[in-house]
Design brief:
Mean pLDDT: 84
Strand content: under 5%
Low-confidence stretches: 264-272
Largest sheet: 2 strands, antiparallel
Number of strands: 2
CATH architecture of the domain at 52-221: Orthogonal Bundle
CATH class of the domain at 52-221: Mainly Alpha
Length: 272
């Protein structure tokens, strides 16, 4: 039944104002940078930067999924000892509240000669693909875990209890019952983690300002670093092209995420 409450329209100005505040900067960037987009998209420098950025985010998001999904399930179903779930949740979400430059500095110290953990002092994280992945992983994992936990919270436990009564283990119920039920939402969680990684700047500015990944790529900046470098060294015009091109890719990703979350793009069935 349609509501006849005239106060429904009181929310419209807030929606319009917020929409303008969020979209006007993007529209302005596209308008000013439109003539530079094609040049940026065909630039070898941008292509190599795009390749390492997308690849690093792809690997980091896969790690988020592989490690975060079982963790999110355990937290959702209170499988940890009493009182420990809340502590673990707070710890896992803490990178969201820490400045990301601090995250980058922490990872740098962890693998430096002054690291308090000798066994990982020699890990090749500085200016390497693995360093880029490590930084992406730390900043995106809280978002992935939080998203997946919220999804699993919405799954009725009766299905798992039925599976347990039929002889499945808890791990079996998780892999054969829960995961197939939430497969589409897991894709959305993965894309959220991937998108967060792609947009990261603070931590990689310290840990992976540029990436050396021979023989594929000898030297390349991640895209956010590339935009910043071009602006600092060459000025606004070169940075506009790279910024507009990266923004276009981000918007395409957002559209794909929306289509998947609404079920308009069908994902293949995961067989138990």
């Amino acid at each position: 039944m349609v509501s006849l409450d005239s106060t429904n329209y009181y929310f419209t100005p807030f929606i319009i104002l917020l929409t303008l505040m969020l979209t006007l900067p993007i529209a302005a960037l596209f308008y000013v940078g439109r003539e530079y987009i094609l040049r940026a998209l065909t630039s070898p420098l941008f292509i190599s930067s795009l390749a390492i950025t997308l690849l690093g985010a792809l690997i980091a998001a896969l790690l988020d999924l592989a490690l975060g999904l079982p963790t999110a399930y355990a937290l959702s179903r209170n499988l940890l000892p009493r009182g420990l779930s809340d502590v673990v949740s707070d710890v896992l979400l803490s990178p969201m509240t820490i400045p990301h430059t601090v995250v980058g500095l922490s990872l740098l110290i962890l693998t430096s000669p002054i690291s308090p953990i000798p066994i990982i002092r020699r890990l090749p994280l500085v200016d390497t693909m693995w360093g880029l992945v490590a930084a992406y992983f730390v900043v995106s994992a809280p978002i992935a875990i939080g998203s997946m936990k919220q999804v699993i919270d919405g799954v009725d436990v009766v299905y798992e209890e039925l599976a347990l009564t039929m002889g499945l283990t808890r791990w079996g119920a998780f892999t054969k019952v829960v995961i197939p039920m939430v497969r589409r939402d897991l894709v959305t969680s993965y894309l959220l983690a991937w998108s967060r990684s792609v947009s990261e700047f603070g931590s990689i500015a310290i840990l992976a300002y540029y990436v050396m990944a021979p023989p594929l790529i000898n030297y390349a900046y991640p895209i956010p670093i590339l935009v910043w470098y071009e602006y600092e060294v060459y000025g606004l015009a070169p940075a506009l092209g790279y910024a507009s091109a990266s923004l276009l890719i981000s918007i395409i990703t957002l559209v794909v995420m929306g289509l998947i979350s609404r079920g308009r793009v069908r994902m293949p069935m995961i067989k138990p």
